[in-house]
Structures
1.
Amino acid sequence: MMKRMLFMLGVVVLVLGIIAFLKFSQVQKAIAQGSSFQPPPEAVTTTVAKEESWEQTVDAIGTVTAVNGVTVSADLPGIVEAIAFESGRPVAAGAVLIRLDTRQEKAQRAAAEARRSLAQANFARASGLRKEGVVSQADLDAAQAELDQAEASVGEIAATIERKTIRAPFSGVLGIRQVHLGQYLAGGDPVVPLQSLDPIHVDFAVPQQELVRMKVGVAVRVSSDGPPPVAFEGKVTAVDSLINASTRNVQVQATLANPEHQLRPGMFVRAQAVLPGATTIVALPTSSILYAPYGDTVFIVEKMKDPKGNEYLGARQQVVKLGGQRGDLVAIVSGVAPGAQVVTSGVFKLRNGAAVFVNNDTQPGNNPAPKPEES
């Protein structure tokens, strides 16, 4: 019985040993296969880094303002007798816009002119009598004063009549009429907006750090969303002498030609001031940048060797310092040398040392001034 039990125990130990040996062989084979496994190359697109002259610019959101812009209003009260303009039309400086009823003032002027005629006659008579010694110098002076007062009265009434003819103070484009024929206007009541549209101002704010380089004469590009989008060029004509204590920004005013009146006061526009002194940088598509909290990186394609010494095309991760962005391009201040082959798409599926396959049949956007169809 004991021999039988020992025999069975030996058989079990032998079977377990055989199973353990087989499993150990399988594990060793899997480990060997895993260590020699190479993932297939990732398909990427690339571009060759080139040095470019990069303008130094400051971008801001600006507001269009008129060089001259007012709401023409009534100077004196009166009834609207005639309207001599149409809404939205251009007018020249001095053009008549509104005439108010001046019948009462004209009657007053006639009476003042009659008093002036009498004063002129009295002064002429007093002058003759003074030469004959009949009247004193005081009487002649009194006659002169009466004549002067009569002249002033006529001039005052004539000025009142003139002020009731409302004229355009400068050339520009009228807005929508705000008065009607026969309407009573009090002093200061609005008549019509008037804006001078060519040239025109664009006001925008820049950080105080740029104040040293933001001088009168600096070129400014202005663009507005359409449809259709429009672009203008002008120059800085004024820099505010006061910095905003809350934002630490300074107001800048640019002047632009606006012959077709596409820019109107109150519009929001994009303003870009082109600062003097261009810098030389490497520009890459924004799709080539892998943004991360610990630092921004790109992948550079170059020849590499695996642990066995075999050569392959791989991607090396490189930390970069970024500059400004322009359209699809971003400036690389440091980290990429000219001539390097940089991955432009597929960066999110790469790791340092990963094998890659370059396929440049389709390239991502690489335009400093893109114009999307659905913008």
2.
Amino acid sequence: MTKIDISKIKNYFFIGIAGDGMSAIAQYLTGIGKNVSGSDRQFSNDNKDERRKKLEAENIRCFPQDTSGLNKKLELVVISTAIEPTVPEYKKAVELGIKIVMRSDLLAAISQTKKTIAVSGTSGKSTVSAMVYHIFKETNNSPSLITGAGLVSIQKQGKIGNAIAGKGDYLIIEADESDGSLVKYKPEIGIILNIDKDHKELEELDDLFYTFSKNSNKLIVNNSQERSKKFSKNMTNDFGYSEELGFKISNFEQNGFHISFKINDVVFELNQIGKHNAENVAAAVSACKLSGISIKDSAKALKTYEGIYRRHQVILQEDDLIIIDDYAHNPAKLSASIEACQFADYKLITWFQPHGFKPTKFLRDDFVKEISEALREEDEIWMSEIYYAGGTVSKDISAEDLINDIKANGKNAFYVKERNNFPEKIKIHLIKNTIILLTGARDPSLKKFSNYVKDNLNN
């Protein structure tokens, strides 16, 4: 891993700064007094989109991805795994002799400057990170945050919402398994939420999480999931959480968009949905307890938790029609999202846009199994064609293949190749009480699409 001393570096440049992970680190650095600039292919000289405006409001200079932002005064160029050596700005940075580092290496270096709480797992990282941050903030601990999804409470301030440079001792981050970078972090508190097949085979994931568990000074493990439970032998404390061990969850109830439950006899109430969020809370509360915040104080703080961007965001709520936008994109997340939206006396219509031909092919059987098992008799699943982000890739699978497999399992499954045809196609499928759940990730136009669906069904 590249050694980086951020105390000695003042001038940073990010190639691909509009990305969620990149923009978060960039905002954190400017928040601690660094000079930050960056470029992105979605930026242009003629049009300033919302992401660029919000970055510039944080004193971050933004450029088109045309090498115009690079100069010899820069000390560090930051890239993600999406930036290849053939990218012109990468080449120019090499020509100028500027040190180039991976985003994950920079985040690992930042994490060593604080007491870091690193949240890992194939599902729920952003939510748990947001919950821990909210509890710390509400208990006047001034935490720092670097995460992948915007908190609604921070977005209301006109910010992207995925980063804060606080004055307190603690930093909350996500430790990502998809690029293998979670092995780079050595946090004060490490959390393993769950381990499900996603970007990698389970055996490879086991190796990554094992290293992460050993690197964590204190470890919190979800003992209710068999795959993550085995790492509890590496725990240095008794703060595992599950239905049976550690922080026990009981008395779970969901009424509309409100859940209540107990953790170790303390009552929690949140304006969220889904039993998976009770487990998310247990993980967050466990970390806060290890940091000196009582369970009762955590429960009080979470009453005002507002959630994060595109995690079961309600974009329309009428007497007979509810539209929900969600980030779910892997089999386990999609199954949990569907089950959370299965309100009594409501039919559920789920729309899903898979992303990436290679990951969709890799997870085909898992998608079919999880979706088929989650759907009730009256529910429906709709899919549009797989999102293509560019590059050289074999397009040897279609979303229609998944739909046909789910149909073969006796479920109501429909393929609508062009997603803009979805609102018109489903009108005859709507009954008096219907929930429409829109799901997918990576595609930056998904939020715009959710508003398109709302506008074309609510007229």
